[in-house]
Amino acid sequence: MGEYVLNIAHMYPDLLNLYGDRGNVLALLRRAQGRGIEVNVRAYSIGDSISEKDVDLVFIGGGQDSEQNIMKDDLIKEKGPIIKQMIEDGVVFLCVCGGYQMLGKYYETYDNKRIQCLGALDYYTKGAQVRFIQDTIYEYDGILKDGKPLTVIGFENHSGRTILGDGVQPLFKVVKGAGNNGQDGFEGATYKNVFCTYSHGSFLPKNPKITDMLLEKALSRKYGESFKLLPLDSEFETIAAKEALKYVQKST
Amino acid sequence: MASVVFASFVAKATRKVLRLFGKGATTLPGKLALKINPTIIRKLSVDKDIITVTGTNGKTTTTHMIVEMLSNIGFDVVTNISGANLASGIATTLICGGDEIIKAQGGSKQKTKTVYVLETDEAAFAKIAGDLQPKVSVVSNLFRDQLDRYGELTYTRDCISNGIDKNDAKLVINADDSLVASLGKGREGRTIFFGMELASMKSNNVTHPENKGVLPASPDAVYCPLCNVRYEYEARSFSHLGAFCCPKCGARRPSPRFEVVYSLSKSPSDPDYGYIIKDTTINEANEMILKVPGSHNLYNSCAAVAAVSAYLEEGNDKKECFDTACKAALSVKAAFGRMEKFSVGDGNKQICILLVKNPAGLDRSLSFLANAKDADSLFFLLNSNIADGKDVSWIWDVDFESKIDNLPKRIYVSGERWADMQLRVHYAGGRIDKADCMEKAKEILDRAIEACEPNKCVYILPNYTSMLALRSILVKQYGLKDFWK
Asked: What ipTM was estimated for this complex?
């Protein structure tokens, strides 16, 4: 039994599991376990009730349209009020792609059909015909390295264009890629301890500083502001990020 | 419109020239011919007996099995190579395939036509199934596969469904895959289901439950699309394959006509694994030997037996056809890149290539390797060219974690995205012996073979374009034949 325990809620993993989203949960698990922290990952799917006291960190991934249609009602009607409360209370969330879009106000399809979303965060998404599918590079000024914003590496695959309102902040500045909408040069959104991004798959594995930030926020919320993560080797993560960056720069 | 004769002439001439330069010429000739005459596939298919094989996993293996079986039975056979499964490759095969007939074993006994066995890409199937007018269409399974290229899995299913509507081929389809099985709905008269026997699945689930990892794999198609309710499974073989049932509408797995009776008390990873295939309509059972190892190849073998039986059956005795198909399956060999082994070094070491291009393929290969007694080491190669899918995140969908303890301890990694794969193995809990870029692939392979113990095997797991790159290394260094020969 470890001194510290981290409870991760993996939302709808049987439906929202595209493009290696599972890797993000694995990264949280490995980098917490590596520091002797006990980790419980619990799946919450349709019909499962969720309670704030059982959860320190929430992960919501993206799904195929047909799969998101299956779980959307459960998220909005059943779990919605509790999730909104958790967000206001400062529970740490990482939401990717569909998970990102569904926390917003609404999603308007390409043919102008409006699909109501959870409405927890101040943004909406419009569908478009052209998909953004590419490797991406961002800057994150929430973590500084030698006084400079952290370079983040990702992969985006989305047809939705997300437009942020005043109630949220963009998460990253786009260096390469389309980001939220291909227009304003920003990617993702953040509000309190919620972090939303279009970066799929190996987002956390290749960006261990963000993994650590999420872990530290979740655990310091639970164990007090003085909680600090122990140092942990990032050799393989760093090599993967460096090589991916080289690959992306070479192919453009 | 230019004539078929002219289009064919251009294709054949192109092929001759390309072959002079050492190229495979498996798609360009057909591409040109289609430009000259877009109806060429339809025109050339008219008097041919064609069997198509589609689905996200196991296409190549199943196609190859059907080819060998028909040849064993006494047919001349023409087929396409796995990389040439779009309209262009299939047109090339229809035009030029006559030059590369796989002759009937022991001379042609049948005075019938040459059989064309065509591996067909899922999206291409929708476009050309009407032109091909196949006698038999096999659909192996539907797993997530390069979604950035193909889109959603339900879309792939609908593509295949559209294709099916354009002909009246007998459908040989997987009963255990809910997405594939749904293709049989409303087409009962022409559908032949294959799958695992329920009693076998049930008892194997009890005696050999799957290892639980730290996180379950990302599943496909586990909800009833009509009711949006999670399927219940009476028994499972692997992933979303099994005896599914919707608790709301009661839709359930159709009972297969051809079913596999198997026991995991022996391992399908071992050579010469014994099992049984039953034809339930005539209550016949034949003892079989799995010629291409791995539990997933039980599905491919059963699909091949079902397809060949269905092809032979036209007006013939069912039992005779079933027995002939089963017998022909007993001498099938592995295809290149699919469990085919080569001796290297002083001949007492082996290498074996397992193409893995999507999560289901990697999952099944790891499951096979966790039980392969001769596995000395693993060598992963990962590229992300257009033909592979630009997105390498699929390697994270696989439950690597539950298998790592039973995998060989020596693991090597290469390919253009070697560092992604290295991190994947690291997070799975594996230790890397050596990892480096594609330029170093040959050095790493040499090192792996050098370290390999006598009478053991280095298992190489590339994805598509890294396999092609590796193949040219193997051709140079070990004198393996070129892939189109």
From this structure: 0.96
Which pLDDT value is given to residue B482? 56
Which residue segment(s) compose the domain that B126 sits in? 4-329
**pLDDT confidence band for B239 (50 / 70 / 90):** very high
Helices then strands, counting H and E runs in chain B, come out as 16, 19
Count the Cβ atoms, other than its own, within 10 Å of residue B365: 22
Distance CA B21, CA B16 (A): 9
Q: Do A18 and B147 touch (CB under 8 A)?
A: yes
State residue B342's pLDDT score. Answer: 85
Is the CB of residue B92 less than 8 Å from the CB of residue B7? no
Our count of domains for chain B comes to 2
Among the partner-chain residues A15, A46, A133, the one whose CB lies closest to the CB of B148 is A133
- Reading the block at residue B171, the tokens are 């459908």
pLDDT at B298 over 50: yes
Instruction: Tell me which residues of chain A, numbers 3 to 22, contact chain B at a CB-CB cutoff of 8 Å.
Output: 10, 13-15, 17-22
Question: Which of A19, A153, A237 has the most B C-beta neighbours within 10 Å, making it the best mutation to test the interface with B?
Answer: A19
Is B95 contained in some domain? yes
Q: Point out the domain boundary residue: B305, B329, B353.
A: B329
Question: CATH fold of A5-250, please?
Answer: Rossmann fold (3.40.50)
Residues B167 and B203 grouped into a single domain: yes
Tens of pLDDT, residue by residue over B435-481, are 999 999 999 999 999 999 999 999 999 998 998 888 888 888 776 66
pLDDT for A23: 95
Please identify, among B281, B300, B329, the residue that sits at the C-terminal boundary of a domain: B329
pLDDT of residue B110: 54
Clarify whether residues B54 and B182 are in a common domain. yes
Q: What is the distance between the alpha carbons of residues A160 and A112, in angstroms, rounded to a whole number?
A: 13
Nearest to A25 among B215, B228, B423 (CB): B215
Q: Are B255 and B342 found together in one domain? A: no
Q: Taking a C-beta distance cutoff of 8 angstroms, is the pair B448, B410 a contact? A: yes
Judge whether B78 lies within some domain: yes
